[in-house]
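dumping this here so i dont lose it
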């Protein structure tokens, strides 16, 4: 597949900061063609991820570890949490923001956040089946189970604890 005229121009201007600052306002993922210095420019990357969180993929590692940049990206596209540094995958603010857009992000969460009731509730409210990545303690939490079952019915039943599968409130939701 041939490159578009914009892609060709982006490749030719790999080191033109002002060009990229304008370009990312309408075609944020073309930041891929910028040089490392531009991909490490916080203003350029923030501009890009405000339009399309997926542009985070092309940011420098330093900016993937910048909480402000991550919050902007996951506000647009929760799944971009997958590009976050380990440190930010363990940041509750980042994971809660991401979970509001995409419950799947629980998969990328740190072990501690997979055991955090607020994060798990936000994730299963958005995508009930993601309960399978929650800690066993959260799978045995009745509030979490109620939300997951009310949204996911039988699809999530195998992921809640055996004890809760016999709970009358859970059975009631399933019979609705």
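and the seq i came up w/
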């Amino acid at each position: 597949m041939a490159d578009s005229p914009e892609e060709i121009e982006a490749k030719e201007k790999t080191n033109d900061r002002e060009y990229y600052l304008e370009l990312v306002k309408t075609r944020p993922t073309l930041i891929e063609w910028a040089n490392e210095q531009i991909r490490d420019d916080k203003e350029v990357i923030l501009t890009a991820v405000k339009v399309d969180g997926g542009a985070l993929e092309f940011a420098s590692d330093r900016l993937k570890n910048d909480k402000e940049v991550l919050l902007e990206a996951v506000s647009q596209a929760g799944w971009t949490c997958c590009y976050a540094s380990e440190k930010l995958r363990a940041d509750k603010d980042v994971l809660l923001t991401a979970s509001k857009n995409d419950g799947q992000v629980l998969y990328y969460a740190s072990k501690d956040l997979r055991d955090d009731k607020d994060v798990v509730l936000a994730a299963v409210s958005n995508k009930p089946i993601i309960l399978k990545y929650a800690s066993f303690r959260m799978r045995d939490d009745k509030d979490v189970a109620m939300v997951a079952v009310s949204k996911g019915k039988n699809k999530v039943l195998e992921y809640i604890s055996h004890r809760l599968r016999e709970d009358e409130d859970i059975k009631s939701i399933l019979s609705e």
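The mean pLDDT is 92.
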